């Protein structure tokens, strides 16, 4: 007997996934074009080390974080544990890349004698990174590793989802502040004259907002949430009956 085909994705979901990835890749290309064309490029042990920072933050804290949020929408019919692992892996990779960007800016400041952590961008950016790291550690502890009770997971899950979306928004806001700060430092005399660098950097900011809106819309569509598989519901029912004596209440993200 032929196997039944996998259920189709909800109407419109595939199109939004494609748009989100197109926007994400355009973000990276635009960031690279800005740094390469107007800021001299990217290098580690050189005066260009600072440029590693914006590239890493856009790649890690925006693009990869956004894709990590979409894992439960894209891989709707894969095993839940595999989906969780991919979700955690993408967030972890985003953290590592962001950490490289943070190290780059601190080392660049030290080399050039520039003070650290005095601007609104640096305050918001560092707070977002620290909270993001905490969110990742708590998420791994509650959902990825065994030992946490189902009822505790259910109580923590709404907080995890809320802070996940909030930190994504904060990451984009910190990037927007960083773009504005960099433009005011580098081209403050000509920025108001619609110079090409200013237009390109502003375009990057618009793309960041667009990417955030598309991901946010996909995350808030109730009918696009990952449905629990039949075997997951059965396992959850058996586990809760054995350990807590109640029916399962832990749905999918």
Automatic annotation (TrEMBL):
The chain crosses the membrane at residues 12-35, 55-75, 87-106, 126-148, 160-179, 199-219. One of its GO terms (cellular component) is lysosomal membrane. SMART domains: B561. It is found in: Cytoplasmic vesicle, Secretory vesicle, Chromaffin granule membrane. Gene3D superfamilies: 1.20.120.1770. It catalyses: monodehydro-L-ascorbate radical(out) + L-ascorbate(in) = monodehydro-L-ascorbate radical(in) + L-ascorbate(out). Transmembrane reductase that uses ascorbate as an electron donor in the cytoplasm and transfers electrons across membranes to reduce monodehydro-L-ascorbate radical in the lumen of secretory vesicles. It is therefore involved the regeneration and homeostasis within secretory vesicles of ascorbate which in turn provides reducing equivalents needed to support the activity of intravesicular enzymes. This is Transmembrane ascorbate-dependent reductase CYB561. It comes from Eubucco bourcierii (red-headed barbet).
């Amino acid at each position: 007997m032929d196997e039944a085909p996998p259920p189709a994705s909800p109407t419109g979901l595939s199109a939004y996934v494609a748009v989100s990835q197109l926007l994400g890749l355009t973000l990276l290309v635009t960031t690279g074009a800005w740094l390469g064309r107007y800021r001299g490029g990217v290098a580690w042990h050189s005066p260009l080390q600072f440029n590693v920072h914006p590239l890493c933050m856009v790649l890690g804290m925006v693009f990869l974080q956004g894709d990590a949020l979409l894992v439960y929408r894209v891989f709707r019919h894969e095993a839940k544990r595999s989906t969780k692992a991919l979700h955690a892996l993408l967030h972890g990779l985003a953290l590592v890349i962001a950490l490289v960007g943070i190290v780059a800016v601190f080392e660049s400041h030290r080399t050039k004698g520039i003070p650290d952590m005095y601007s609104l961008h640096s305050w918001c950016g560092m707070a977002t990174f620290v909270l993001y790291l905490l969110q990742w550690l708590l998420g791994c502890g509650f959902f990825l590793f065994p030992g946490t009770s189902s009822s505790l997971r259910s109580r923590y899950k709404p907080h995890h989802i809320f802070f996940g979306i909030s930190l994504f928004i904060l990451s984009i806001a910190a990037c927007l502040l960083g773009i504005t700060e960099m433009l005011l430092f580098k081209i403050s005399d000509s920025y108001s004259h619609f110079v090409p660098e200013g237009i390109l950097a502003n375009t990057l900011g618009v793309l960041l907002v667009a990417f955030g809106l598309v991901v946010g819309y996909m995350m808030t569509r109730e009918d696009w949430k990952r449905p629990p598989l039949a075997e997951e519901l059965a396992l959850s029912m058996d586990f809760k009956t054995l350990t807590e004596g109640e029916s399962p209440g832990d749905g999918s993200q």
